[in-house]
Automatic annotation (TrEMBL):
Family, as annotated: Belongs to the TRAP transporter small permease family.
Molecular function terms from GO: transmembrane transporter activity
Record GO cellular component, one term: plasma membrane
Primary location class: membrane
All copies of domain Tripartite ATP-independent periplasmic transporters DctQ component, residue ranges: 31-161
Residue spans crossing the bilayer: 21-43, 55-71, 91-113, 133-151
UniProt keyword annotation of Transferase present: no
Keywords tagged on the record: Cell inner membrane, Cell membrane, Membrane, Transmembrane, Transmembrane helix, Transport
Protein name: TRAP transporter small permease protein
Membrane topology note: Multi-pass membrane protein
This protein's record includes keyword Membrane: yes
Localization, UniProt: Cell inner membrane
Quaternary structure annotation from Swiss-Prot or TrEMBL: The complex comprises the extracytoplasmic solute receptor protein and the two transmembrane proteins.
Length: 207
């Protein structure tokens, strides 16, 4: 089990590093969009290539960061029932999801898209739009992104099995179980409570 946990930590590290750099793809897409707008307004010139670069970069950032998103448990979840169950039941639900839903889905996508990437690379397929780009780079994001998502799913699976066996920490307790919106609301409530307490402390005592 310790060897599997070591593998899990390596996968976590890989996706964490990738997640830190993917943000630059969003920045690059923003820069391209801004330059495209400036050139179009200033020189009355544009190209479909500029537009396709933007969605190429977005596709790469969205797909390659899928494993990083799973690492931080930021994928959309419907926890109306799950959050009310005991911790072990929640862990078992995750195990079933990773083993019987996430893993087959990722394997199917990788199996279907990998040959397509080689085919498009060999054919040199280009976008049908005038001034469009070659297609294989954006298709390459699919097998890479789903491979990283699959690896992170296995990492989460290892951590949950280790927890059930008493050989690892609570995998659900590494991060806050609240959504970003709930965390913000809680922070605002604490700030309001602090201000109320400060006003009450400074108010003159009633006689």
């Amino acid at each position: 089990m310790q060897a599997l946990l070591k593998l899990s930590r390596a996968i976590d590290w890989l996706n964490a590093q990738i997640g830190r750099w993917v943000i630059w793809l969003i920045f690059a897409a923003t820069v391209v969009s801004a330059l495209n707008a400036i050139v179009r307004k200033a020189f009355n010139y544009s190209s479909n290539g500029f537009l396709e670069v933007q969605w190429y970069l977005f596709a790469w950032s969205f797909l390659v960061a899928a494993g990083y998103t799973l690492l931080h448990r930021e994928h959309v979840r419907i926890d109306v029932v799950n959050s009310r169950l005991p911790k072990r039941a929640q862990v078992w639900i995750d195990i079933i999801g990773f083993a019987f839903f996430l893993t087959p889905l990722c394997l199917v996508v990788i199996y279907l898209t990998t040959p397509m990437v080689f085919e498009k690379y060999a054919s040199g397929e280009i976008s049908g739009n005038p001034g469009g780009l070659i297609r294989w780079p954006v298709w390459l994001a699919l097998p890479i992104g789903f491979t990283l998502l699959l690896l992170q799913g296995w990492s989460e699976l290892i951590k949950r099995i280790a927890f059930l066996r008493g050989q690892g920490p609570d995998p659900m307790g590494r991060l806050s179980d609240q959504s970003a919106e709930a965390e913000l609301a809680e922070a605002l409530r604490r700030e309001a409570d602090a201000k109320t307490a400060a006003l009450a402390a400074n108010a003159p005592q009633a006689r």
